[in-house]
TrEMBL record:
InterPro entries: ARM-type_fold, MIF4G-like_typ-3, Nmd2/UPF2. Residues 234-268, 300-381 are annotated as: Disordered. This is Regulator of nonsense transcripts UPF2. SUPFAM superfamilies: ARM repeat. Residues 244-253 have a biased composition (Polar residues). Gene3D superfamilies: 1.25.40.180. GO terms for molecular function: RNA binding. Residues 300-312, 334-381 have a biased composition (Basic and acidic residues). GO terms for biological process: nuclear-transcribed mRNA catabolic process, nonsense-mediated decay. It comes from Zea mays (Maize).
């Protein structure tokens, strides 16, 4: 910056503009580029018009450009960075006319681009960036920027322009939402056709598999783009029917039993009745806690107090009118007997008495208000102390009865602030206390019946932490990653976390199947993999994920520890069939390893021995 101030670049303005327009800027470089442009704008008059014209060429290159189809990904990234730069330049005053954004939005929301799927994805990303960074153009309040209201008011964006931006983006969102719905229907139809082919022939052709994967990938990308645009516009993202249960069709024949029936349908989801009761038999809070404390019924005490006050006010008003009438009649009679001066003195004395009574009533009201405030403060202090006591007892709840009792006690302190503190305390569980995660998840599942915001707050924090940890490339603090993914898995078994979130986390690990991601994926499968594999809605998709897991294990040169982890995670769900010699028939067994329980091992041997003895 000091060199730019000291050097005369008046003869090289066009070169500076071309370098800025051709630079591959990242999001972190935008602010530095704005500072450079601001300095050049202050020193050279010809800089800003040339810069704006050069930046707009990125969005309107013209039909004569030869490399339009060269690298669409790089062009999309260039458009995104250029749009961010233009918005920042408008905020600092280098770009003075907001009409340039009108032309850009008109082009991005054009119906012609909807025919090209890659173009639609690019436009969705650009419009999400515009709506997120330029909420002021849409007349929306930027989150956390209330202090800059005066700054935004000084920007010369007319009401008509704001109306145009909002209408254009909302109509485009409705259009792509309809496109998403139609593509979802097409995906469902293809899945149904593939299921028929699998049941008839036992496998899918390579062409059908490729077309399905292509359609599935296109649908996932479109769903992410539409959801991002909805979030930027402060709207609810579209909800696909049974989206969390959308399953992929596998082409592997050994993933399907030879009998033509799904093996997971024959096997129960839970291994025993105690486990089933722990995850499915939740206490009914309405039977232990009054409905008023759960927020389901508004307190009637206020209504009763209001009615009592109205009745008391009516009675007092009637008494006052009667006394007033009596006073008037007595005064008229007295005036006939007493002199006028004496009557005036008595009226003055009564006025003084009334003034004293009014002052006494005001002082009493002030004292009552002070007492009420003190009682409220004491109540808040008591609630805070009792909430802290509950949060301190959380790590000691290592049984079903203890966690259920603590859940009921928390309901007596139900408030929005306390629910936020509880969600934060659950999220901050010690990374080595993995045994607490099932009980914490049971607490969340129990509260979810009456307090819908508790699981949503906790899930948002866990998902944000997972995305942060998965993007970090340093290979330390694996315990935090394992705690995070096992917490998500336990919430999934309580049906608090949607299966789509679990599959998304698993896919992120499989995309970069190395180092800690292997441990995270295996821990996720050990926690809720069997639950998803045995659930009818997700069994096919989980089988597909397990197939990818084994392919990656065979392709990559894993160390013995990771190889054992992958095998244990895989064979915990999958089963294979062997042909026993003689007339024993097909007998389904699991793969024997050092982790196989001895009880199951001896049970299999006893079954084989009994069948052999019956045949002999």
């Amino acid at each position: 910056m000091d060199e730019l101030k000291s050097v005369n670049l008046s003869k090289f303005v066009s070169e500076a503009v071309s370098y800025i327009c051709e630079a591959k800027l990242r999001s972190a470089d935008i602010q530095a580029a704005v500072q450079v442009c601001s300095l050049l704008h202050q020193r050279y008059k010809d800089f800003s018009p040339c810069l704006i014209q050069g930046l707009l060429k990125v969005f309107f290159p013209g039909k004569s450009v030869d490399d339009l189809d060269a690298d669409k990904n790089s062009r999309a990234m260039k458009k995104r960075s250029t749009l961010k730069l233009l918005i920042e330049l408008y905020f600092v005053g280098i770009v003075e006319d907001a009409s340039i954004f009108v032309n850009i939005i008109k082009d991005l929301t054009s119906a012609e681009h909807l025919k090209d799927r890659e173009g639609t994805q690019t436009n969705l990303s650009l419009l999400s960036t515009f709506a997120r960074q330029g909420k002021f153009f849409l007349g929306l309040q930027p989150h956390g920027q209330e202090a800059y209201d005066e700054f935004f008011k000084e920007l010369n964006v007319t009401a008509e322009q704001k109306k145009f931006f909002k209408k254009a983006l909302n109509s485009y969102y409705d259009t792509v939402a309809e496109l998403l719905q139609s593509e979802h229907v097409s995906l469902r139809l293809m899945e149904a056709e593939n299921a028929k082919v699998l049941s008839a022939k036992g496998e899918l052709s390579d062409e059908n598999t490729a077309s399905y994967e292509k359609l599935r990938k296109s649908f996932d990308q479109l769903l992410r783009g539409v959801s991002s645009l909805a979030e930027s516009l402060d709207m609810q993202p579209p909800v696909m029917p049974d989206d969390g249960n959308t399953t992929r069709v596998t082409t592997r024949t050994d993933a399907l039993p030879s009998s033509g029936k799904d093996s997971s349908a024959l096997e129960p989801i839970w291994d025993d009745e105690d486990t089933k009761a722990f995850y499915e038999s939740l206490p009914d809070l309405r039977a232990f806690v009054p409905a008023v404390l759960l927020g389901e019924v508004e307190p009637k005490s206020n209504e009763q107090h209001a009615k009592g006050r109205e009745q008391s006010s009516e009675s007092t008003s009637e008494q006052e009118t009667e006394l007033h009438d009596d006073f008037q009649t007595s005064a008229t009679e007295h005036q006939l007997e007493v002199k006028l001066d004496g009557g005036v003195k008595e009226s003055d004395d009564k006025d003084k008495e009334k003034g004293k009574d009014g002052e006494k009533e005001k002082s009493k009201e002030k004292d009552l208000d002070k007492k009420n405030d003190r009682e409220k403060e004491k109540g808040r202090a008591m609630d805070g102390a009792s909430l802290d006591n509950i949060l301190q007892r959380l790590p000691g709840c290592v049984s079903r009865d203890l966690i259920d009792q603590l859940t009921v006690e928390f309901c007596y302190l139900n408030s929005k602030a306390n629910r936020k503190k509880l969600a934060r305390a659950l999220f901050n569980v010690n990374r080595t206390s993995l045994e607490l995660l099932p009980y914490y998840s049971r607490l969340v599942a129990t509260l979810s019946t009456c307090m819908k915001d508790v699981p949503s707050m906790l899930l948002s924090m866990l998902e944000e932490e997972f995305n942060f940890l998965i993007n970090k490339k340093d290979q330390i603090n694996i315990e935090t990653k394992i705690k995070n993914i096992r917490f998500i898995g336990e919430l999934c078994k309580f049906k608090m976390a949607p299966p789509a979130l679990v599959f998304s986390c698993l896919k992120s690990c499989l995309d970069d199947f190395s180092h800690h991601n292997i441990d995270v994926a295996c821990n996720l499968l050990e926690t809720c993999g069997r639950f998803l594999y045995r659930s009818p809605e997700t069994t096919i998709r989980m089988a597909n994920m397990l197939e990818i897991l084994m392919r990656l294990k065979n392709v990559k040169n894993l160390d013995p520890r990771h190889s054992t982890l992958v095998e244990n995670a895989y064979y915990q769900h999958q089963q294979y069939q062997i042909r026993w010699p003689g007339q024993l028939g097909w007998f389904s067994t699991g793969r024997w390893s050092t982790t196989t329980p001895h009880r199951r091992f001896w049970w299999f041997l006893s079954q084989l021995w009994q069948e052999k003895m019956s045949l002999s």
